[in-house]
Amino acid sequence: MATSNDLLIKRRSVIEFLAAWGCSAANILARMNTVYGEMCISDCAVRKWVRIFKGEDPRETILRDRKRSGRPLSVPEKAHREKVDCMIRANRRVKQKEIANAVGISKEGAIQI
Fold first, then answer.
1. Is 1 helix (H, G, I), strand (E, B) or coil?
2. Comparing C-alpha atoms, which of 72, 63, 76 is closest to residue 113?
3. pLDDT of 44-83, one tens digit each?
4. Tell me: the pLDDT tens digits for 76-113?
5. 13 and 35 in contact (C-beta within 8 Å)?
6. Number of other residues whose CB lies within 10 A of the CB of residue 99
7. Which InterPro entries does the UniProt record give (predicted)?
8. Torsion of CA 23, 29, 33, 34, to 10 degrees
9. Among 18, 19, 62, 101, who pairs with 53 as Cys (CB 3.0-4.6 Å)?
């Protein structure tokens, strides 16, 4: 089974190939809708990638997302749950704000856990 990242790279590859052939963004989107159906990316995303691919040498194009600084997309929720559980077992009167500060999550995240 392909991961969402694999599917993303496949879609970008299709856009890159068709853009290199000189197809317009509308034509590429129509072709992709035929193949992918509801799983197709949006019109503005296709146009963005066509602009990127037409401005670069196809041999130097990188289809994967580059590493970025900032907050990670996923959080190790299991580890947070274990920390929160330990804090609550140690002190049943611990406040949500104290949990959030100690674990390093938002107050809303502490409430959900």
1. coil
2. 76
3. 888 988 888 877 655 556 666 666 666 655 556 777 888 8
4. 677 788 888 888 999 889 998 888 888 888 888 888 87
5. no
6. 21
7. Transposase-MT_Hybrid
8. -20
9. 19
